[in-house]
Amino acid sequence: MSVTLTEKAADHVQSFLAKRGKGVGLRIGVRTSGCSGMAYKLEFADAVAADDLQFESHGVRVVVDPKSLPYVDGTELDYTREGLNEGFKFKNPNVKDQCGCGESFNI
Amino acid sequence: MALLQIAEPGQSAAPHEHRLAVGIDLGTTNSLVATVRNGMAVVLADSQGRPLLPSIVRYAPGGEVAVGFAAQAQQANDPKNTIVSVKRFMGRGVKDVAHVENAPYDFVDAPGMLQIRTRAGVKSPVEISAEILRVLRQRAELALGGDLMGAVVTVPAYFDDAQRQATKDAGKLAGLNVLRLLNEPTAAAIAYGLDNGAEGIYAVFDLGGGTFDISILKLSKGVFEVISTNGDSLLGGDDFDHRVFCWALEQAKLPPLQPRDARLLYVKAREAKEALTNHGEAPITARLSTGDFVDLALTTEMFCDMTRTLVQKTLGPVRRALRDADLTTDGIKGVVMVGGATRMPQVQRAVGEFFRCDPLNNLDPDRVVALGAAMQANVLAGNRAQGEDWLLLDVIPLSLGVETMGGLTERIIPRNSTIPAARSQEFTTFKDGQRAMSFHVVQGERELVSECRSLARFDLHGIPPMVAGAGRVRVTFQVDADGLLSVNAREKTTGAEASVTVKPSYGLTDAEIERMLRDSVEHAREDMQQRALQESRVEGERLADAVRAALESDASLLESGERAEIELRLGELEKALQGDDHRTIKRASEVLNRATEEFAARRMDAGVRRALSGQKIASLGG
User: Fold this and answer.
1) CA distance B21 to chain A (A)
2) Do B4 and A43 make contact, defined as CB atoms within 8 angstroms?
3) What ranges make up the beta strands (E) of B222-305?
4) DSSP secondary structure code for residue B55 in this structure
5) Number of independent structural domains in chain B
6) In terms of domains, do B544 and B479 share one?
7) Domain end point (choices B476, B510, B544)
8) What ipTM was reported for this prediction?
9) Does A91 touch chain B (CB under 8 A)?
10) Residue B549 has what pLDDT?
11) pLDDT band at B422 (very low <50, low <70, confident <90, very high)
């Protein structure tokens, strides 16, 4: 069971955390909403709950709540640039289909 | 698939509901757009990685509109249709613009704001600015991957209502939801995080390409207040380039140059200036179309010498701004540097020496205003975690005032005043022996209370009986940072007080505010006549009252002929007061006034005699 970051994604998370000046890592999760059922949560983690699972990837602590883990297990988070836009991209092996924009998905 | 950004804890946006918001620095020379991504404010560059967009718009022959570098490239070939520095014309008439004769444009004077005749038709500065904003909006939407929820656009602190409104209109025309206009120095202070607990007074030194602004800001509890501003609208980095250019001409002993060669040398001069920020010496080399070869070396020392007067020129406005704020440099906690020209070491040094402190300069001075605007936009769009401090910055959308005699509005706090705000005004009693005063608090831009929005009413009792005009009541309007208005009335001799608290913007939608503002413009003339009529009525009635009272008490001082004359004139005024022509009322008042002059003098004498009778000469000597 794990969630990983690419090196590039980890570098960006590190620098965002440093500039933000606080936070223990990155929280990844899912919640039910959107046009295809599920949506990702990607947030700075300021605290870790007792039942949270933690992974270490390229020096970044990744925090996942236990309810979300089955949906994101095996996910690799990448950082990419597409034209003028840039940001994080989920490569999630559990996803069966997703809405056109990829903001919500189904498994 | 969509690219995601890291949100603050608990603030992940629902899919398709990203609250994308940007800050826009709509500058005289260059404009920028910035946003907060992954918790950080960043400037968004164009597809070629250039963050600055020259604020230049060209209406090309084919009907297309070029903005930015493309327009700049054609500026020399097509000056009439290539508009630079349009910001100088926002909300201005032809006669308001300094050195308007130097601009190459075909101006059309229109009521309120000038317009420019271009090959694409007559364009207003609002439309031209909208072209710049539209390009920035499109850039932001491409970079953020979605429609913008809103934008914060910055304006100079000294912009008046008309200029601010024009800027807002330009935003609307460009398809932007303008969340708020933010003062440029305030945006710079926000970018430096001065809103986070830094209390005190700061100076913002903004030396841009063609303009210089100095603002003195007061920060307390997350609220910014601009205490004073000053500047020089014709001083900027371009003047430094010009000095270097002239020096190069002189050194190389060049004859007058072809326009193309002059532009080339100008670019080289600018490059040398920029190189001197980090180097002690910079070369200026250029091969001109005449075959002449320019090969010069400019040292920091020479550059400082030739621009010393320019640097000194910035300090005059700084002194004036301090004087207006009633401060010395000791009262300034820090100086924020804004504008590309503040990179020059001699400028940094001069500012540091003047204020006797190191200026804040670790953020890119070209971007700092846009970054601060983006941070403010992010807060206004609701992308901040709960419990974090919210920036409290706002202006009053419509004037606040009270009703005075005759149903007229007396404005106490004009619209667009920044909050918190407090203003007072003194009112006097209207009738002899008046014991109480009624206050009606209203909001709006119209002259007549009936056309404004009624907010509250309250009474002040306990005024001691006095002759009309002797009772003085100080009315204070105070709007706190949450937009809550409290009105207090205090009678000066007894200290009797009454007050009321209301929320001025309660229930007013944007559409209503817009309608009210539109009405105030459309009805300006009508309102003025109404005001004149009401004022003349109040005056006339006051006079008629006084004459009636005098006739009752002191009729013995008049011969019967005189009395008949006064009564005739009084009757004429009473009749005029029934009508609604303010000129007739005014004329009748004047006639009655003249007819009673002698009577008034006699009453005065009689009054003095009464007061003195029975007193000994010695006690009068005092």
Assistant:
1) 15
2) no
3) 223-232, 281-287, 293-299
4) S
5) 3
6) no
7) B510
8) 0.83
9) no
10) 85
11) confident
